[in-house]
Amino acid sequence: MKRALFLAAVVLLALPFARAQAPSTTAPLPSLLGSATKLFIGNAGDQENADCLRVYNDFYQGMSALGRFQLVGDPGQADLVLELHYEIALGQAVASHDTNSSVRQFRVVLIEPHTHVVVWSLTERTNYALFQSNRNKNLDETVGVLVKDLGSLLNVQPVPPDNRSKVPHPHL
Q: CA-CA distance, 18 to 53, in Å (whole number)?
């Protein structure tokens, strides 16, 4: 009998901890993601870097090709502002003898244009390559992933992309 009471006490004491570790409800996605139809795309990358300008142009064309959005030239007319950022991890070299070492990434920050609140952001790493043809291939892949992920995210029923980079990185 004492053993049964002891086990019952242990179970009752453990219940609050079991509930605390139970999976919680998924947080709702911002409603703006499903309702935005007018987009402004800003280039927050390095204006003197040919790769940044290429990615901005390709990203703009990719978003236009989705056919679901009106791309506007004035952020004040947009439902959503997309800022395209080019980033290099601090303390890292852009190029090395190991061309598989990637520290470059492109990040798209989605901003509500009237309140300037960041609604969401997506980041995709890109592999560096010494030869321009390989670099172009890597940039094409990165832009393709960003456009695809944004197309899913900016849908009537938004689907958040995986939280992992989809471009393969052999060294990571």
A: 52
